[in-house]
């Protein structure tokens, strides 16, 4: 038999023996059990299931529908200077760097090292009374090491793909942080506008109370009124002043909140002017809300990437059951004695090259535990994705219900204010003509004030519900190509060879 064929058979025998030995560690009984839900199986709301003729809604700048330039400018400032966004961006860069580290393991690794040292050679049983005994000479060397992972079972490839999936997940989480920041600013801005509107109501009430006080004083001076009437008119004035002061406090606190959300100090918040958005702004919804919008939600996308990453983790754990084969080599020079740089002349050159094989034989259950951990991690990721999907659908349905209710409540609140205003006007006229006492005027005024406050609160809640609905639909932050495919999110199957070895 030719020597070359003999060596080939020996190599093949060693490889086959390696596979057989790896079979000592089986994977039976360890497999993921989680199954991802389908959005269509959960979406029962007709508004979510209708045709996607308005699939471009909402837009990325959805807050511009409120028509307030100051709000637009403030959100732009927040996205640039918020510590929350800075942390999210840093996490994305960190994840990308980790992916780069994982990908580097698939490339050729070359390392070089060199040492120059003086060495004293004693006379002992190791060196003996040889030529170098009791001398001090140069003992220098230089080496170049090379290694390359063959990655026969895809361990390194899946590890790098897993790191890339985690980087995609971090990017989706950054978009989620951006969406939450936008929503928080819009809601705080609506609250600021509400406080100003309520202050207008209280201020108008105070003005009317003062006018009635003047009228009561004139009636007293003319002899047709009483001191009791004047006292009744004066009684609510301190409470109205207190309400004005409380609303001034709420306005200042809302400014501080907006400044903090944007990453600024309270001084910047004090520069905020009164919002120009109207609490009665007409907000339109598209005729249909496409179910595809659900897949664009950043939290849903992030959960899907986590499932994909965990699936890669199972493949990495599976590869650990196979022999690992690397190509390694080295090239070096060394010199003992002579000049300091004599080793560079190449007189004492040495090199080595060949495969390095590591065999998993018995490890106390480490590999099975790692595979079990990866499978459980996949199931956790799938369960988290399913819960995120359920919560997303619930949030959309809740906000649709709330938005429809707010529209109806706004109509009823407007009717209540109109009726209360009519009652108050009648009471004022009757009081001026001496047909009723001030108590009826005070009751009518209190009712009008309460109904106006309710109307403003309903209008603010309606604007807030719109913001929540847009947020629930992903805020226009389309994922685009940054979405894992079905093949990436599915649990990997056990390789046929590994199933044979594990039986």
UniProtKB/TrEMBL annotation:
List the InterPro entries.
Answer: MdtP/NodT-like, OMP_efflux
Supply the Gene3D superfamilies for this chain: Outer membrane efflux proteins (OEP)
Keyword Nucleotide-binding belongs to the record = no
**Keywords assigned by UniProt?**
Cell outer membrane, Lipoprotein, Membrane, Palmitate, Signal, Transmembrane, Transmembrane beta strand
Pfam families tied to this protein: OEP (PF02321)
Q: Which domain of life is it from?
A: Bacteria
The way it spans or sits in the membrane comes to:
Lipid-anchor
As for subcellular location, the record says:
Cell outer membrane
What the record says about family reads: Belongs to the outer membrane factor (OMF) (TC 1.B.17) family.
Functional description taken from the UniProt entry: Could be involved in resistance to puromycin, acriflavine and tetraphenylarsonium chloride.
Alphabetized PANTHER family for the sequence: MULTIDRUG RESISTANCE OUTER MEMBRANE PROTEIN MDTP-RELATED, OUTER MEMBRANE CATION EFFLUX PROTEIN
Protein name (Swiss-Prot/TrEMBL)? Efflux transporter outer membrane subunit
**Which species is this UniProt entry from?**
Pseudomonas violetae
Q: Species lineage, top-down?
A: Bacteria, Pseudomonadati, Pseudomonadota, Gammaproteobacteria, Pseudomonadales
